[in-house]
Design brief:
This protein has about 250 residues and is an alpha/beta fold. It is about 35% helix and about 30% strand.
Length: about 250
């Protein structure tokens, strides 16, 4: 199966690097064009109908998100390419949209293409992801959302409604206020990195909790009682870190 791709990046060297890597490592990808700005990218999308766009975030005259706003619904898959912009990257991770970091890694590129090939027939997935991403990018919206993908469904959840996350080998169980749990094929470490900026704290090798839902900390036994009445252990080596995080969160 040949997948038509468009590369959008204002830096020529970056476009060449990605093109060379795709030609060498990803034989199923056919690069049908390159664009250096949003306006030329818009024209190329309409002319060539690519299956996927490798989209740089920061470009002169407009960022990559502005290209996506020109299409409703978005008729192609997106893989963001970025060198920095921590705010945007945080929003991308929460929205479960695929991305590559510069300088590009062949291993990560291959992983992204494998993931892309599995999702080519899912037309609704990207549009829901981008809708969530646009919400998360608005600084005046205090309530952020996270997308949890499972083998059977895509869940869009408000972060403040997540009570805790629990490790289950290479999976993580995400528990919500209503008691529902979603099992996701991501490690607890990945959730820690995504959710720690939003008031979550890793208190144990197996537990990440939402500090806003802490009711009591029983120091003598090292247990946190959450708003759901659940009792979660705090490891001894994370106790001081947890107490400091809780103090700054209140």
């Amino acid at each position: 199966m040949s997948i038509k791709a468009l590369i959008v990046d204002d830096e020529e060297n970056s476009r060449k690097a990605l093109l060379n890597m795709l030609q060498y490592y990803c034989k199923d990808i056919e690069v049908i064009g390159q664009a250096e700005n949003i306006s030329s990218a818009f024209e190329m999308v309409n002319e060539h109908n690519p299956d996927v766009v490798f989209l740089d975030i920061q470009m002169p005259g407009g960022n990559g998100f502005e290209l996506l706003k020109k299409f409703k619904p978005i008729p192609f898959k997106v893989i963001f390419v970025t060198a920095f912009d921590h705010f945007a990257l945080r929003a991308i991770k929460l929205s479960a949209v695929d991305y590559l970091l510069k300088p590009l890694s062949p291993k990560e590129l291959i992983r992204s293409i494998d993931k892309l090939e599995k999702q080519m027939d899912d037309e609704d997935l990207l549009n829901k992801q981008i809708e969530t991403l646009e919400d998360n990018l608005q600084p005046d919206k205090p309530v952020k959302k996270i997308i949890l993908n499972t083998s059977t469904a895509m869940h869009v959840i408000k972060i403040n409604e997540v009570i805790r996350c629990e490790a289950d080998e290479n999976y993580t169980r995400v528990i919500q206020e209503d008691g529902k749990a979603v099992l996701v094929a991501k490690t607890l470490k990945e959730f820690d990195e995504m959710l720690s900026p939003f008031g979550f704290c890793r208190i144990h090798q197996s537990h990440l909790i939402n500090l806003s839902h802490v009711i009591t900390f029983e120091k003598s036994v090292g247990l946190v009682i959450l708003s759901t009445k659940e009792r979660v252990p705090v490891s001894s080596r994370r106790k001081e870190f947890f107490l400091s995080a809780l103090q700054h969160h209140v």
